[in-house]
């Protein structure tokens, strides 16, 4: 079929991760999620305690099999993959907490075997910008000749007050320096941003998207703020609920953000996955397919595409 968007071979009007991986690897790709036992510097006292106020006790790894044994986690991940997509290729995704929050020698011991593990076509590592220094980046650059590694960096918002509100523990400049250092090392970057912080207007969230566009990451993940049980945010929400944007507003916002992003930027996610029993609000986020379908239909109705309003700049 004739696609309305350059980086698509179906009805999608944005650069989907599925399109990107099929073009690159020639097949469906599945991420095998791993909890390697890390913490975060704003949890363990390095820069603070409590972690980001929205983050669960699993460090965003709520879908990972509940075992500390990494090999058992991997086996469980492959079982899920083979049930869903027999014949798919796998990426090792170190997801929970900050997966470079350790001395370099410990990172070398953990990660080196996966660069030679034929079960995986590449490696994804989720971490914080303040957990990657030049020595660590140099190590991963040296290993990337064996297998590609992508870093997923949590930005969430460019706004200082939001960073304080969520207890992030680092500033925007930390992210800029980290992204630029990774790009200089030719290591792909996936930025994470979150929509729906209670102190942010729609324009503030669009400013975050514009800033991301200026950094030119290879990928971006867009999430809606989940209010999760047994988190600092969840506890405060139960005591004093705040207004949360509805699905229609979210769809409009995401489309506006997509229009601001470069067309070549891969959209690795447009809404997060919440665990049914843990999500306090907004409950519409549990209907992921409905959200994605609404985005597709509204983009088609407006006859718009990712990058329509993109203006090249640099930081």
UniProtKB/TrEMBL annotation:
InterPro entries: ELP3, Elp3/MiaA/NifB-like_rSAM, Radical_SAM_C, rSAM, rSAM_sf, YhcC-like
One GO molecular-function entry: 4 iron, 4 sulfur cluster binding
Cofactor(s) annotated in UniProt: [4Fe-4S] cluster
Protein name per UniProt: Radical SAM protein
Keyword annotations: 4Fe-4S, Iron, Iron-sulfur, Metal-binding, S-adenosyl-L-methionine
Domain of life: Bacteria
Domain named Radical SAM core: residues: 24-264
Lineage of source species: Bacteria, Bacillati, Bacillota, Erysipelotrichia, Erysipelotrichales
Keyword Transferase (UniProt): no
SUPFAM superfamilies the record matches: Radical SAM enzymes (SSF102114)
């Amino acid at each position: 079929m004739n696609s309305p968007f350059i980086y698509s071979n179906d009805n999608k009007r944005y650069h989907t991760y599925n399109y990107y991986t099929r073009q690159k690897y020639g097949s469906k790709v599945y991420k095998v999620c791993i909890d390697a036992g890390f913490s975060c510097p704003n949890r363990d006292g390095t820069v603070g305690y409590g972690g980001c106020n929205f983050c669960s006790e699993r460090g965003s790894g709520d879908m990972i099999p509940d075992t500390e044994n990494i090999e058992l986690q991997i086996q469980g991940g492959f079982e899920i993959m083979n049930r869903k997509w027999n014949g798919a290729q796998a990426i090792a995704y170190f997801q929970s907490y900050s997966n470079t929050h350790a001395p370099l020698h410990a990172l070398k011991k953990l990660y080196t075997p996966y660069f030679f593990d034929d079960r995986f076509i590449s490696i994804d590592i989720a971490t914080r910008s303040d957990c990657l220094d030049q020595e660590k980046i140099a190590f991963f650059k040296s290993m990337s000749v064996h297998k590609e590694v992508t870093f997923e960096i949590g930005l969430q918002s460019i706004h200082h007050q939001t960073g304080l509100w969520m207890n992030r523990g680092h500033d925007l400049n930390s992210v800029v320096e980290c992204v630029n250092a990774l790009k200089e090392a030719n290591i792909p970057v996936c930025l994470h941003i979150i929509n729906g912080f209670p102190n942010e207007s729609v324009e503030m969230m669009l400013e975050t998207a514009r800033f991301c566009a200026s950094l030119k990451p290879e990928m971006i993940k867009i999430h809606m703020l989940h209010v999760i049980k047994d988190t600092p945010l969840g506890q405060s929400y139960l005591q004093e609920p705040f207004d949360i944007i509805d699905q229609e507003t979210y769809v409009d916002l995401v489309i506006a953000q997509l229009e601001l992003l470069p067309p070549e930027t891969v959209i690795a996610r447009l809404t997060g996955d919440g665990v049914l029993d843990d999500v306090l609000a907004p409950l519409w986020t549990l209907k992921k397919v409905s959200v994605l379908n609404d985005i597709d239909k509204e983009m088609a109705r407006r006859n718009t595409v990712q990058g329509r309003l993109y203006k090249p700049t640099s930081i």
